[in-house]
Amino acid sequence: MKKIFLLVFISILTWPLFGQDLDFARRQIDTLASETMHGRGYVMNGDRIAADYLVDQLKELGVQSWKGNYKQKYSFPVNTFPGNMTMIADGKNMKPGYDFQVKTWSTGKQDTFQILKLQEKHLNDMGELRALRSQDISNYLLSVNPEDFSDKFRKRLPEITHVNFFGAAGYINLKKVEKLTWSVTGSEQMVNHIVLDVKKTSWNDAGKVILDIENRLFNQYETANITGYLQGREEPDSFVLVTAHYDHLGRMGKNTCYCGAHDNASGTAMALNLADYFAISQNRPKHSLLFVFFSGEEAGLHGSRFFAENPPLDLEKIKFVMNIDLIGSGSKGIKVVNGAKLKPQFKLLKKINEEKNYIAAVKKRGEAANSDHYPLYAKGVPAFFIYTLGDEYKEYHNPDDRPDGLPLSAYEGLFRLIRDYVEKI
């Protein structure tokens, strides 16, 4: 009876702390994934607004700069769409992000275009191929429906549209999907034609399209990784890195924001929450902590690659990297990239969860170059990438990934799991 009373008493004492962590996270996500941050991308200085905000937060939490500077500046080329984003198909106004989206390496276009259907015969029959290539279709958009092609040619369609094999003004890729998902990978370059992904149910087999789409290519766009430092109690020259990318897709045109609550305002909030906890002197672990918020992840891991190639500390001093990305769900636990490779470290993480029952499951997978852990891992630094599992939230790389409705199902338990792991590793 005394034991039960003690457990109840402890739960009453700790329950408010759980709520505090979740409240902290929601405040951060509400801010980071707001329209004022412009999707933390490269239109309207979204990434720079977010970077300055993170620096202010670290200062407010009492987290020091690393070697006198919170920012590690670097640059990379990026193609952006800062202005008009209009598509009218046979008189129907198509909604950016929902009915259509533009490939990030496309040029802008302002004109009226006729539509010509690309068919398998144009690829399979040499006479048809030569006939189409001999035509002047520089004022046509070729519509491409993958369902009209056999497997042999379907897999070649992305290459055909990218290199503009037929010399068209551009291409319409019809997508049989519930929601379109955008990506800014490949934005370092720009081609001389336009490629649009169009939701098939919105297309209605249009014969004419009016486009007014503006782009701007930056040969070198300056951005920055953000770092914060807490000195360890016993081993100040040994470091654990807690990392998360703060960038997202930004804006596709001036009115469509990909705000990125799940990806990755959620992971950024967790890293800030951990910084808040460990900044308290009695919570400081024996080793030092470096909190790193990467930019450029969505465009191709640019920030983490730059950090790995230009490390602000000796890589041999890094004991472990905990990279947090996509943690807005969690009803089915977490997946740990590199868990199958770093067996002792994964065993410790799993053991902590089994003892404390923080989250539903801790599942492992192998190597994957799918987030910011990878450039450091490729340099020999042990690293995990953690993301949550669950069907309760499915918004990803679309304009609906916003704070409203983000469940954060496992946030509180995951915070404690990572906290305990950072303390014990």
Write a structural description.
Helices cover 32% and strands 26% of the residues. The protein folds into two domains: 21-80 and 219-424, Aminopeptidase (3-Layer(aba) Sandwich); 85-213, Glucose Oxidase, domain 1 (3-Layer(bba) Sandwich), CATH 3.50.30.30. It has twelve helices and 18 strands. The chain has 425 residues and is of the alpha/beta class. Strand 2 and strand 3 form a beta hairpin. Helix 1 (2-32) crosses helix 8 (261-278). The strands form three sheets. The chain has an eight-stranded mixed beta sheet with strand order 1-10-14-11-15-18-16-17, sandwiched between helices. An eight-stranded mixed beta sheet has the order 3-2-9-5-6-7-8-4. The chain has a two-stranded antiparallel sheet with strand order 12-13.
Question: Tags for this entry?
Answer:
elongated, Aminopeptidase, 12 helices, eight-stranded mixed sheet, 2 domains, Glucose Oxidase, domain 1
Brief write-up:
With 425 residues, the protein is an alpha/beta fold. 32% of the residues lie in helices and 26% in strands. It folds into two domains: 21-80 and 219-424, Zn peptidases (Aminopeptidase, 3-Layer(aba) Sandwich), CATH 3.40.630.10; 85-213, Glucose Oxidase, domain 1 (3-Layer(bba) Sandwich), CATH 3.50.30.
